[in-house]
Amino acid sequence: MADLSAKDVEKAEFAFSIYDADGTNVVDAVDLGNVLRALNLNPTNATIEKLGGTKKKGEKLLKLDEFLPIYSQCKKDKEQGCYEDFLECLKLYDKQENGTMLAAELSHTLLTLGEKLSDPEVEQVLKDCMDPEDDDGFIPYAPFLKRLCGREEED
């Protein structure tokens, strides 16, 4: 992979190994999006499907040498938002301009905008990433976004 650095390949091998459930050096294609997201990429579900991801477990297996070109292509893809893009979007909901937004608006946004999430998916994201609401129903959105994008370690 001429377009991946040695460090990128090492990171990809590590992420791939996490999803190699039985140690056979293959990953189920249903986990392709998870592996790419573990590498701090944000591909859409449509992109994952285009790159060979499947919706059902057991339909297709990927070897590391098949995954590396997918990772390389996904790294180059500009059709994914970055932390700063998402932060700017959430600022639109920050009526008091104090770094907070209504938790209900965040939930509504996740359910209705862009690639829509299901109710259970939104519940899981909020449970995993959201700080508790204050007495007025507001949450700080930057920490939520950092957890969602896997950027907590950068602070």
TrEMBL record:
InterPro entries, sorted: CALM/Myosin/TropC-like, EF-hand-dom_pair, EF_Hand_1_Ca_BS, EF_hand_dom
Keyword Repeat: yes
Domain (EF-hand) ranges: 7-42
UniProtKB keywords: Calcium, Motor protein, Muscle protein, Myosin, Repeat
Keyword check for Repeat: yes
Superkingdom of origin: Eukaryota
Subunit-level organization: Myosin is a hexamer of 2 heavy chains and 4 light chains.
PANTHER family according to UniProt: MYOSIN LIGHT CHAIN 1, 3 (PTHR23048), MYOSIN LIGHT CHAIN ALKALI (PTHR23048:SF33)
Protein name: Myosin light chain alkali
Source organism phylogeny: Eukaryota, Metazoa, Ecdysozoa, Arthropoda, Hexapoda
